[in-house]
Design a protein that fits this description.
The protein contains ten helices and six strands. The protein is of the alpha/beta class and 232 residues long. The relative contact order is 0.17. The chain binds zinc ion (ZN) (2 copies).
Amino acid sequence: MFENLITSAIEKAFADGACTSCGSRTVDVLCVSCISRFETVYGCRRCGSPQCTDMACDQRWLPYRRCQSAVVYAGPARDLVLAMKRGGRPAAFRLAARELISRLDLDAARDFAFVTWVPAGRGARDRGFDQGRELAVAVASALRLEAVPTLRRAGKDRQHMLDREMRLEADVFSVRRGLRAAHCRALLVDDVTTTGASLYFASLALKEAGVPSVEAATFARTQLRLQHHQEV
Ligand SMILES: [Zn+2]
Ligand SMILES: [Zn+2]
């Protein structure tokens, strides 16, 4: 009887804690089993692209020091990204931030001056919610840094520089006035990337504004399964 009372009290406490991916009961946004299904991204260690090789990449100029993603955009990781886009619980952002920091070893590189983010496109702005900002705040909090708004979407005038595939994702950015970024190392975060184009142009805007070093990191990256298994 007493045990039943305790059990039902625990169940009540956890009642609204269902795994975002499989629906099983959990205190976190995803259950342990779903978190264990996150897949590591296999791509270039510098730019993150699965089509690039480290050696070829070293020959070219990039606006960031590194651009890396923590997990493959599939299964429970995809469900977590969608939960964040829908304006999910703070715990969703904390979980994504935790995975991003630990998998990309960002905790070891503690010399970031601040965390900033790729601002959302018009759809998210209309909803009044920017999941990139929320993720940046969660990452900054975990690293004991400040999340600083630095970028705004600036239009499409430079898109002729891109091939068609990149154009689908890319937008270009301008830096907000008053950025005190000189002599700083910035950590630029976003929830998910496909081609890395947004991160490229956001990093470029920061570099052009005088930020000496930018490290770009996303929670997830879309990756074709075939390429994934070839890399393994
Ligand atoms: Zn689950
Ligand atoms: Zn590369």
